[in-house]
From TrEMBL:
Residues 147-309 form the Alanine dehydrogenase/pyridine nucleotide transhydrogenase NAD(H)-binding domain. SMART domains: AlaDh_PNT_C, AlaDh_PNT_N. The transhydrogenation between NADH and NADP is coupled to respiration and ATP hydrolysis and functions as a proton pump across the membrane. This is NAD(P) transhydrogenase subunit alpha part 1. It comes from the Bacteria.
Length: 368
């Protein structure tokens, strides 16, 4: 019988937890021992008493020393990895492109590590897709931030003082975050448009009540992501987008590809052409931003336009984000659980092999 553990997240501002009372019960039903650092779920809204099937330990080192599998939201700090016993498994959003300093520790401690943001985008993987589940919360929160920062109503209002026209909201990028942003802005009564260089997103945008903004540039790529634009395509896109932004009140920018810098879509000149009081919320701030003016974690005001660069938006909805994230991890771990709660890592499974960034001293899965 293996022990699956989780600890309090150490990253600044991180409120989510990788194990919830729901997934704790499910693991216990599979014959797994669940071990929890005291208070691990408190800031997400889960008290220790709710983890009825788990062992609760106040000492962090004790939890780590006994873990066969460590579930985490963000990559553990080096000291925590050093406390894991050799042969342990780490599963979470490990961001290997940002945390290269952890690779030697995985090797030294002979740990197996699975970064779920590298999960292949297949139908079978949907129940384990942490990028999609967390992006939905991020898109929702981004629109609420925009509505709070904007000096105007989102819906059309007819009042004794006259009629207020609805805000014009443009969502750039029609992935999961963008589609959730479109749906949320529509619910708030705004006039909503969605823009994406992948033409296949038109139907999704329109199904949510948004209007597809066609700038005459198509960049359909592989794996659900857009291919890089050519210089001519980028110039045409920027020319037409700059003209369109002059009539937009709010932009929610969501265009990003994991592990790569975010594409620069909104130039400083475009911002200068927007109306005073306009707001840009840039979800891609963590990877450089879709706007040239974006500063991660900060607000920038230029020519009367506010550019917001929020970080870790999913953590703002920690309770529901944790519930979804924990289910993703539970479903992925299920690929490795044999009868009676034993652990077996099936590297012949494309989902397991595709996410493995270290395996008992090696920096990739055998044969990957």
């Amino acid at each position: 019988m293996i022990t699956v553990a989780t600890i309090r997240e150490q990253s600044e501002g991180e409120r989510r937890v990788a194990l919830t009372p729901e997934t704790c019960r499910k693991l216990a039903a599979k014959g797994v021992t669940v071990l929890l650092e005291s208070g691990a779920g408190r800031v997400a809204g889960f008290e220790d008493a709710e983890y009825g099937d788990a062992r609760i330990e106040a000492d962090r080192a004790t939890v780590l020393a006994q873990a066969d599998v460590l579930l985490c939201v963000q990559a553990p700090v080096p000291a925590d990895l050093q406390s894991l016993k050799p042969g342990s498994v780490v599963i979470g959003a490990l961001a290997p492109h940002r945390n290269g300093n952890l690779s030697p520790i995985y090797g030294e401690r002979r740990l197996s590590a699975f970064a779920l943001e590298k999960l292949p985008r297949t139908t079978r993987a949907q129940a384990m897709d942490i990028l999609s589940s967390q992006a939905g919360m991020a898109g929702y929160k981004a629109v609420l931030i925009a509505a709070q920062r904007a000096p105007r109503f989102f819906p059309m209002l007819t009042t004794a003082a006259g009629t207020i026209r609805p805000s014009k909201v443009l969502v750039i990028g029609a992935g999961v975050a963008g589609l959730q942003a479109i749906a949320t802005a529509k619910r708030l009564g705004a006039q909503v448009e969605g823009f994406d260089v992948r033409p296949e997103t038109r139907e999704q945008i329109e199904s949510l009540g948004g209007r597809f903004l066609d700038l005459g540039v198509s960049a359909a790529g592989e794996g659900g992501y857009a291919r890089p634009l050519t210089d001519d395509e980028r110039a045409l896109q920027q020319q037409r987008l700059a003209e369109h932004l002059k009539g937009v009140d709010v932009i929610v920018a969501t265009a990003a590809v994991p592990g790569r810098p975010a594409p620069k879509i909104i130039t400083t000149a475009m911002v200068a052409g927007m109306r005073r009081g306009s707001v840009i919320v840039d979800l891609a701030a963590e990877s450089g931003g879709n706007c040239e003016l974006t500063l991660p974690g900060e607000d920038v005001e230029r020519d009367g336009v506010t550019v917001v660069g929020p970080l870790n938006l999913a953590s703002m909805g920690a309770l529901h984000a944790s519930e979804m994230y924990a289910r993703n991890l539970f479903n992925f771990l299920g690929l490795m659980l044999a009868d009676g709660g034993a652990l077996r890592i099936p590297f012949d499974d494309e989902l397991v092999a595709g996410t493995c960034i270290a395996h008992e001293g090696a920096e990739s899965a055998p044969g990957a």
